Amino acid sequence: MTTIPAGAADPASAGAAGVDFHEIVDALYRFGAGQDLADRDLFESAFAPGATVDFRGPAQRFGIDLQPFQGRAAITEIILGTVAELSTTHTITNPRVNRDGDRASLFALVEAQHLPSQDHTRHLLLKNIYTVELARSGAQWVITHMKIDNVWFAGDPTVLFPAGAAA
């Protein structure tokens, strides 16, 4: 297993390891930007066909029982459907990558801001830890499993969980 350092002044200067670091983290960037830009193709490109997204941590924080999302099509429908009426921004920081051949793991902090598109006086800001498993798919890396754990939040949980969210 190779740990690819994120702290290098220029990861790309590290040759193939730097390219892999960028391409691995790019899968998470595609996930966030696909939501923020309402770009279905970009969002879907982040996931393997049989991927899993586990959002139970943040949901449980607000009293919501939520099962992991299974498969790229379901992940896309559920997440893009949920944020369709929201303005979102996802800021991804502190990526740490471990690569083992055509498999990799990624740790990152993600700050996700959610505001109703028609009412920016309300918001829900989440700071989450993402633990992600990835696989190489051709020239790209794709997410096979993503687990999201909430560190803290600020704002109104009903922005993201309108039915029954309790802070």
Q: How far do the termini sit from each other?
A: 40 Å
Helix content: 25-40%
Shape: globular
User: Please, how many helices?
Assistant: 4
Please give the CATH class. Alpha Beta
The assigned CATH architecture is Roll
CATH topology: Nuclear Transport Factor 2, Chain: A
Instruction: Provide mean pLDDT, rounded.
Output: 90
- Structural class by sheet pairing and helices: alpha+beta
Number of domains: 1
Low-pLDDT runs of 5+ residues are 7-15
Q: What fraction of residues sit in β-strands?
A: 35-45%
Q: Numbering strands along the chain, what is their spatial order in the largest sheet?
A: 1-4-5-6-7-2-3
How large is the radius of gyration?
Answer: 16 Å
Helix and strand layout, with pairings?
Layout: E1 2-4, H1 16-36, H2 40-44, E2 47-54, H3 56-61, E3 69-70, H4 72-83, E4 86-100, E5 103-116, E6 124-137, E7 140-155
Parallel strand pairs: 2-7
Antiparallel strand pairs: 1-4, 2-3, 4-5, 5-6, 6-7
Description of the structure:
With 167 residues, the chain is of the alpha+beta class. The protein has one domain: Nuclear Transport Factor 2, Chain: A (Roll). It has helices at residues 16-36, 40-44, 56-61, 72-83; strands at residues 2-4, 47-54, 69-70, 86-100, 103-116, 124-137, 140-155. The protein has a seven-stranded mixed sheet. The longest helix is centred in the N-terminal third of the chain and has 21 residues, at 16-36. It is globular. The model is unreliable at 7-15 (pLDDT under 50).
